[in-house]
Every structure is written in C-alpha cells, then in structure tokens.
Design brief:
heterodimer; A: mainly alpha; 18 helices; 0% strand; globular; B: alpha/beta; 15 helices; 5 strands
Chain lengths: 386, 343
C-alpha cells in the first residue's frame, strides 16, 4: 500500500471495474493492466523506483536464458548479488530515504522476491515470462510491504479468477479490519500514547528507569504490530478483491510461547520465504542447522537494513532460536513437558511466563534494531540490565 | 474482452492509467481545490465577489502590516475622488514567491485589477522558500516547469543538503503525488459532506486584516537592538546583484505574473519592506529590476529608514502605525505620479 489512503482506495475503486468487467476472462490483459497501473503509482512516489523495478525484473528474467547456457551456482550467485546491490542502493548511495521511506521498503521486497525467482529458475522449478516477474514485483497491494510471495504462488495466472461475491465481501471486510488496525489502533490510539517514547536519544534512555523503558518498548512493539498487521490485512483484503490469494502474514504473535512459535506467527510470509530459499538450502547442503538459523536471521536483518543494529537483532534472534532448539532436545524439555501435563497450575504459570518473556525479548530486539544508531540501541540494554 | 495481442493490452492499460491520473490532475487544477483549507477568504474574494479592483496586494506579514487595506482605500477615495475603491489584501498566503504570485495570477485571470502591489523578498532564505502547499496552490504547469533553487530553505523537504538540482525529477514527482492526493482529499471531503448534517454556522473566513494598534512601549524591542548595535543599519549588507536577488525560481514566478498583468492591462508595483536594521535597497539594483521587468519598484530611502527604524516599527520585523502611514503614503505618492504622468 502507499502512503496516502485516499490514493490507495481511489486506485482500488478505479482498477476493480476495469479488472472484472473490461478484461473479463483475460488473465494476461489483467496482469498487464495491474502492472502498468502499479508502475505508474510507483513512479509517482519515486521515479527512480520504476527503472530499478524493471531492471531488477529484467535481471531475473535474463537469468532464465543465461541459466540454460551456464547452469552453474556461480552465475546464479552473481545474479543474486546484483539483486542485493539494487536492494542496498539506498544504503550505499544518498538516494532519498527519509521522505520516501515506504517506497524504498518496496525496493527491498521486489529484490528479495527476485532472488527467489533466480533460485527457482536455477533449480528448474519455474520458467517465467517477463510479465510474470513484473506482475509479482509490482502488484500494488503487496508492493511496499508484502506479504512476500514467490512466483509459484503469485503470477499472471493468479489473475484468472472468476468473480465470487462472497470472496469479494470478505475482501472488503478484511480491508476495513486493516484500516481499523492501521489508522485507528496504531495511528490514533497507540502513537499518541507513545508520544516521545521510546526515547530516541542515548542520554534520555540511560536516564530513564527500567520500568519506563520496558513499558515504552512493549507499547512500541504493539504499535508496530497494529500498523504492520493492519497493513497486511489491507493488502490481503485488496488482493481478494481482485480474486488473488496471497498468504497470511500474522497469526496473533502475542500468543507465542517461544521464539520458534513467534516466527510462525509474526511476518509469516518473510519467514517462510527465508526458510524456503536460504535456511533449507543451507541445511540440505551443509547439514548445519544452527548455522542455518544464524544465516536465515542474518539475511533477514541485512534485508531490513544494512546496519550494526540489525546485525545485533539477527544474532539475538538467531541465538534465541538456537538456544530454544538445544532446550527442545534436552532432558529438561522432557521434564517440563511432564510437569505441564500433570500439573495445570504449573502449566498455566509456565505458558504465561513463556509468553511474557517471548514478547519482551522480541520487543527489546525490535527497539535495538530500529534505534537511530548502535549506541542508542545498546543503551536500551544498558538501562534495562543496569 | 479477451485481447490476444499483449501490445493492445499494454496500450489500453497505459491509456486507462493516464485517464485516471489526468482526471485527478484536472480536479486538482480547479480553484476550489487549489485554495481549499485555510484559503477560503482568498477563494471567495477572487471567485465569489464581483467588480473591478483598484489595488490588490500580496506579500508576507510585513506587507499585511504595512498596508491596512481599508485605510488605503480611504486614502484613494480622498486623494483621487474614487467611489468605494476596492483594495484587496491577499498577503499571508505563506512564505514563498510561488504561492504569492499564484494567488495574484488567479485574481488577474478572474477579475480586472488596476494595480498589483507585491512585496519582493530581499535576498535571504525566504527568497528561496518553496511554499509548503505549492503543489496545491500552483498551477500544474508551474509544478512541472518552475525551476527549483539550488539550495532551497525551509520547504517541505526536511534535509536541505539533499535537495540538489539532480533530484528535481523526484521532487516534481513528489509534488505531483501530493497534488493528486490533495485533489482526492478534496473529493472525499466533498463526498463526505453529502452525508453530513446541514452546516448552520457560516463558513469560516480567514480574514485577519485588522488595524495595527501598536503601543509605544512595544517600540522598545527594536530600539534595544539598535542601541546595542550602535548603528542603525546593523544587519549584514544585502548582496545586491540582480542574479542573486532574483534566483531562477523567483524570476520564473515574477515573469509569469508580470506577463499576465501586461496582457490584462494591470500595473505591477514591487515593494521592498525591510526589517529593522536592514540596509536600504540599492538604487542601481532597483533601476535594474525596473528596466528588466518594466515595473515600478518602491522602497524607503536610507534617510527614511533611519527615521522609520527609530520611530515606526512595532517589532523587529513589522511596522507600527507610523510605519503603516509611511508605506501608504509611498504608494499614494506613486499613484499620484502615475496619474499626473497619465494626464
């Protein structure tokens, strides 16, 4: 979705009748229309994104032909590295990041999707058309913040649906739910409550007491959840209006009892994507699960932002996940499971504590990652443990 | 419709997409959209009232304080025997010569104006400012064509250092984006009004023109500055070069205004209104501006300013009652000379 809700809604209102009535039963024309319209919207936000989107898609498409002649890992790695270069362009240059932040989030998404396309082509799973790739990368409901799809699930054939009234109504309801979360819960309720919190200056964080910091980072995380999941609801609902199914992105992450469950409930699409294209491939080749976990979180961290803060975030999540895996295989896990099944009181306390600790941990990691610099990020830890 | 040739699909898609954005841009071009928000007074003054206008003024708060419109109208009536002359003060649109001239151009397109009086910014940050709502107030042509200053100050783009000529394309795209959003917001607001209960209160008029009543003790603030500096003209000398006074952006908007005024038979008067301590306008430069644009450029002389700074400023930037009388007289004197030259 784009920055202004009026433009987004007007785009939906304009595109839907054309999609369903004018290009009836013509998936290719529908795909072309949505791609052209989406590119125009993207160009309006930041003209440089249009050639970058097309270039990134062209690299992925070009790789399809190169792969036939040179089916080596090295060539695939080069094509992937080119995508990374485009992804990190804002970090490597002075491309406008502040006023067009949302648009540049889109940059990270389409380059990641194209890395997936390259891997799938390399494995011989797909043979996409250029339109397939452009459609995957530009479809405006999912352009700037997902959910992250791959070419197997979102391509021009996805536009082949026939109109279904009940699906359409479900789509409208989902968009409304998203608006409620994104604009009301997040922007109207939580942002004003947060006010100046969490403090963004290192000195202010160090002066604050632990309770203030904990409250602030928990509310910040809640606001992030309301905004992000609201955004995903709008994207999923909008896609439904076009008869296109995109995967779910959130499933009550605040109910997660451990870090593994958290990642099955939070930003599910990106986790599945990273798991499918990076973690599983790495484990299959090397057999090293723990390293694979660290690699997956490293990829996710660097995908968010090329910074020390996200590196710490990646190590924190990777470390927590690895520790959890060790715990799950230990005797302690069996003892706890026995206690939980035999003692309801213990079960309640254990589950409640697990939920609180999980949410606190991800909130703290999130606060560190989104802090303006490394010192400020570390100040959160200093205040809490100091 | 099933199209077998993808090229036809692309062309139809491009056409439909263009129609969508063109229709929004057409809506954004309407005066009611361009002047939505706090410009209701200006919109109604230009589009709802009728009759010829003797003098229309535009500028900053300094301009508003230098000419109280009803007093100027009374002076015109007394001096030239005009019956109920209309003096319209459109000042305080906000910083930026782009918006100042856009308002005057909207007025000139709609109604006959005998003289336009415009405060010309001296060289400084304000001369480089892009109005925060320029994307809305300016015409589409202005948004697409007006040059940006190399180092604009104070516009809506927060990091000045990043604003270079190189990303003018992005800036124009952003302005177009904001313009389209403005049009959509307007449409939605109008649409939502259909469901709102009838408004019983009269529309809010943003007419804050009122007599300036400066008490003598308020004069102490500028006087303290003068005393502390030990000289009347304590501010740094202004860089009197035509090319720096009129940067490309100022030049563009001024030329657009003057061309329109010429085609409508309207006189344009430029005015320099310094803040306390500023150096007077350079005579040669004023002459150069007059010759370049074929307009009159009024400004207080060094001697005038010596007296004005001590006796006629209500605060560091705005004149009080005495200053107001001075600037009114400056205009009247100009009209008198014009009238004598005409007869």
């Amino acid at each position: 979705m784009f920055i202004n809700p009026s433009l987004y809604l007007a785009s939906l209102v304009f595109c839907l009748p054309i999609y369903w009535l004018l290009f009836k039963n013509d998936a290719v024309s529908r795909g072309i229309f949505l791609s052209v319209f989406s590119l125009a919207l993207i160009g309006l936000l930041l003209p440089a994104l249009v050639p970058l989107t097309i270039l990134s898609s062209a690299i992925a498409y070009g790789y399809k032909f190169v792969c036939k002649t040179y089916p080596s890992k090295t060539v695939a790695a080069i094509a992937g590295a080119l995508q990374l270069l485009i992804m990190w362009l804002p970090d490597l240059t002075d491309l406008d990041k502040i006023t067009l932040g949302m648009a540049l989030v889109g940059l990270a998404y389409f380059t990641l999707r194209n890395i997936g396309v390259i891997i799938d082509i390399y494995k011989g799973k797909i043979s996409p058309s250029f339109l397939d790739i452009v459609f995957l990368n530009t479809f405006f409901p999912t352009y700037s913040a997902g959910p992250v799809e791959n070419l197997k699930t979102l391509n021009v054939n996805s536009c082949n649906a026939t109109f279904d009234t009940s699906e359409f109504l479900v789509g409208i309801a989902r968009v409304l739910l998203g608006i409620l979360k994104f604009y009301f819960l997040s922007a109207v309720l939580l942002v004003p409550i947060l006010g100046e919190f969490p403090p963004t200056a290192e000195s202010a964080i160090l002066e604050a007491d632990a309770f203030t910091i904990v409250t602030a980072i928990l509310f910040s995380w809640l606001q992030l959840y309301a905004a992000f999941s609201g955004y995903s609801d709008i994207a999923i609902g909008s896609s439904k209006l076009f008869g296109i199914r995109v995967r779910e992105n959130f499933n009550s992450p605040f109910l997660a009892r451990n870090i593994q469950e958290f990642w099955q409930r939070w930003n599910i699409s990106i986790m599945n994507f990273v798991s499918e294209y990076f973690y599983l491939n790495f484990v299959r080749v090397t057999g090293r699960r723990v390293f694979g976990i660290f690699l997956a979180f490293f990829v996710m961290g660097m995908w968010h932002h090329l910074s020390w803060n996200y590196l710490i975030w990646a190590f924190a999540h990777g470390g927590a996940m690895a520790l959890f895996m060790v715990f799950r295989r230990s005797k302690a896990s069996v003892i706890v499971s026995d206690l939980k099944s035999n003692n309801r009181g213990f079960n309640f306390i254990w589950v409640s504590l697990s939920r609180v600790i999980t949410i606190f941990f991800v909130s703290l990691a999130s606060a560190i990652a989104t802090a303006p610099d490394l010192e400020t990020g570390l100040a959160y830890i200093g205040t809490f443990f100091g | 419709m099933k199209l077998k040739n993808p090229l036809i699909s692309i062309l139809i898609s491009l056409l439909l997409t263009s129609v969508f954005f063109a229709s929004l841009l057409a809506v954004a071009e309407r005066p009611s959209v361009r002047l939505q928000g706090t410009d209701r007074f200006r919109h109604d003054a230009i589009y709802k009232e009728t009759g010829d206008i003797q003098v229309a003024m535009s500028g900053t708060s300094r301009s508003r304080r230098a000419h109280y419109a009803p007093y100027l109208a009374a002076d015109l009536e007394r001096e030239f025997g005009l019956k109920n002359p209309i003096v319209l003060d459109l000042s305080l649109v906000g910083d930026g010569i782009d918006a100042q001239t856009s308002i005057l151009r909207m007025l000139l397109e709609e109604r006959h104006v005998e003289t336009v009086v415009m405060q010309l910014y001296y060289k400084g940050d304000r001369a480089k400012v892009t109005h925060p709502r320029y994307h809305q107030i300016g015409t589409l042509k202005d948004v697409l064509l007006a040059p940006f200053d190399k180092n604009p100050g104070g516009d809506r783009f927060p990091d000045k250092a990043r604003q270079k000529q190189g990303n003018a394309l992005s800036r124009r795209a952003q302005l177009l984006y904001l313009r389209i959003n403005g049009a959509l917001d307007f449409c939605i607001e109008r649409f939502s009004r259909c469901f709102a209960a009838d408004q019983t209160r009269p529309a809010h008029w943003f007419d804050d023109s009122k007599p300036v009543t400066v008490t003598p003790e308020k004069l102490s603030e500028p006087l303290e500055d003068l005393a502390e500096a030990g000289t009347v003209f304590f501010r740094a000398p202004r860089d009197w070069e035509l090319s720096t006074l009129l940067n490309a952006r100022t030049n563009y908007f001024l030329t657009e205004l003057i061309n329109l005024a010429n085609s409508k038979g309207t006189d344009v008067v430029l005015l320099d209104i310094p803040a306390v301590g500023m150096q007077p306008l350079d005579e040669d430069l004023a002459k150069e501006v007059e010759d370049t644009f074929g307009v009159s450029f009024l400004y207080p002389s060094r001697e005038d300013l010596r007296d004005l700074y001590f006796n006629a400023y209500g605060d560091k930037a705005h004149v009080g009652l005495k200053g107001e009388a001075f600037y009114r007289e400056l205009l009247i004197k100009h009209f008198r000379q014009d009238s004598e030259a005409g007869s």
